[in-house]
Design goal:
Layout lengths: L2 H12 L12 E8 L21 E2 L2 E2 L1 E4 L4 E3 L12 E11 L3 E10 L2 E5 L2 E6 L10 E7 L2 E11 L5 E7 L10 E3 L12 E4 L7 H4 L13 E2 L6 E20 L4 E9 L6 E6 L6 E21 L6 E10 L14 E4 L7 E5 L3 E2 L4 E8 L8 E9 L6 E7 L6 E8 L11 E8 L3 E10 L5 E2 L6
Parallel strand pairs: 14-21, 23-30
Antiparallel strand pairs: 1-4, 1-6, 2-3, 5-12, 6-11, 6-13, 7-10, 7-12, 8-9, 8-11, 14-16, 15-20, 16-19, 16-20, 17-18, 17-19, 22-24, 24-27, 25-26, 25-28, 28-29
Length: about 450
């Protein structure tokens, strides 16, 4: 696990990157960017302000922003975008039917200043990352409308905050309302996913269920080939009106979204011909369907199509609010696809100094004049990594071959090796891979026989 993935996993456990929770305020009016000083009043009448969408403060408009997760990130392109040495404001009104004591739990990256009903209740000019309860405050909500204004500054790196309002025991307050109203961000149900491919067939790490687990450190990744697709069976007829795709750097340049009631007859409901990657927030005409297909026609990079999270919103008889319901999700490969390249046979145990035989089979291979076939035994978890490779320069459009790999005498006797086969460019090598497939990491190394 990389350092970045470790940090993201920790944040997910802490709840920052978790799916939207009931007690978290995710929809705000935001205004900025301004200078980085937390104590400088960049807008007039900070303590008495009561903005509405479209109003201006110091030549900056107040705009509506709704986060998909518990964290409000000013760096989202729908918010302020990525920048350093700046600050921004976020405003929401809380309507309580009674006067009551409550807890306000906030986290910020970096410093944070908070006004409640015109009174400063926190000013903490720090450099830190977001944790749900960086600061926990006991507050008094008045009967009626309560004005909450938050200001967050940023030096370098991340920029955002998280805000959770609970009763004094930490439970959600079900009878309070907000203005702007909080969006219902419950995901549409998913019963089955049918996919065209998974990078190196690594379904445990890169399978399509990873797009729905609410965790930004996991992802689905396809093979390095065009086209690719994902078919989602919602298990019932739903109404789809919004879709958010959070891409990894390897993303599709050209793709479309299609809908169907029977999984056979498809209607195009969205098309993108020059996808910029990042986070795409797509508002659709309301579409009634049981099946949704994402068809990735052309990649933007030499790698596959890779998605951290796919959010689908609308209405249904049931909804998927978190990743906890994924245990019963069915995931399968499209049965109509022929194998472009497959590893058909390989040993589960290998010994240092031995030779092993790997059988591969392929169909619809690229030109052998431009590509070479690569078969390798690898374990990149071992530092600096182990890779034993054999290259085949000439091959037919379809066929099969038995490849011999010579295992060195000093190969580390650790578990977790796998076989990877690929078509890669003779000129660009792995920067232009036509197709990559692989086995599970289930090959172990045993001690060599005594001579």
């Amino acid at each position: 696990m990389t350092y970045r993935r470790l940090i993201l996993s920790i944040l997910f456990v802490l709840g920052v990157l978790a799916p939207a929770g009931a007690g978290f305020v995710r929809t705000w009016l935001i205004c900025g960017p301004f200078g980085p000083d937390l104590e400088t009043a960049y807008i007039e009448n900070e303590k008495g302000i009561k903005p509405r969408e479209g109003d201006s403060s110091s030549d900056r408009k107040w705009s509506l922003y709704s986060s998909l997760t518990n964290e409000v990130s000013f760096e989202e392109k729908q918010a302020m975008g990525y920048m350093d040495m700046c600050s921004a404001y976020a405003y929401v009104e809380i309507k309580s039917p009674v006067e009551r004591k409550a807890k306000l739990k906030v986290g910020s990256d970096d410093g944070i200043k908070i006004w409640l009903n015109g009174r400063v209740i926190l000013s903490n000019d720090v450099k830190r990352g977001v944790v749900i309860d960086n600061d926990t405050l006991n507050i008094l909500l008045e009967k009626g409308v309560n004005r909450l204004l938050i200001k967050v500054n940023d030096e370098y790196g991340g920029w955002g905050f998280v805000c959770n309002i609970t009763d004094m025991e930490g439970k959600d307050l079900s009878d309070i309302d907000f203005l702007p109203r909080q969006e219902n961000l419950l995901r549409l149900p998913v019963r089955e996913i049918i996919y065209s491919s998974i990078e190196a067939n690594d379904i445990d790490r890169l399978g399509p269920a990873m797009m729905l687990d609410g965790n930004m450190s996991t992802r689905w990744a396809s093979s390095f080939a065009d086209p690719q697709w994902i078919i989602i069976d919602h298990g019932e007829k739903v109404t789809l009106n919004r879709m958010v795709i959070v891409w990894e750097s390897a993303h599709a340049k050209k793709y479309r979204v299609e809908a169907s009631n029977n999984g056979k007859d498809w209607k195009k409901i969205y098309e993108e011909n020059n996808c910029p990657g990042g986070k795409e927030d797509i508002f659709l005409d309301k579409t009634s369907c049981r099946y949704t297909k994402l068809y990735f026609e052309e990649r933007a990079t030499p790698w596959g199509n890779s998605i951290f999270e796919l959010y689908m919103y609308g209405s249904a008889g049931r909804s998927l609010a978190s990743g906890n319901e994924l245990a019963d999700l069915s995931v399968k490969r499209d049965e109509n696809i022929k194998e472009i390249l497959a590893v058909k046979q390989y040993p589960k145990e290998i010994a240092p100094g031995s030779k092993i035989e790997v059988a591969v089979e392929w169909d619809k291979a690229p030109s052998s004049g431009e590509y070479k076939m690569v078969v390798q035994l690898e374990n990149w978890d071992y530092k600096p990594g182990v890779c034993i490779m054999e290259e085949i320069a000439d091959f037919d459009k379809s066929g099969s071959k038995k490849v011999i790999l010579a295992i060195p005498d000093d190969v580390p006797t650790i578990g977790g090796y796998r076989i990877v086969a690929a078509f890669v460019s003779k000129k660009k090598n792995w920067d232009d891979a036509f197709f990559v497939t692989g086995t599970k990491k289930n090959i172990t190394v045993t001690e060599a026989d005594e001579k």
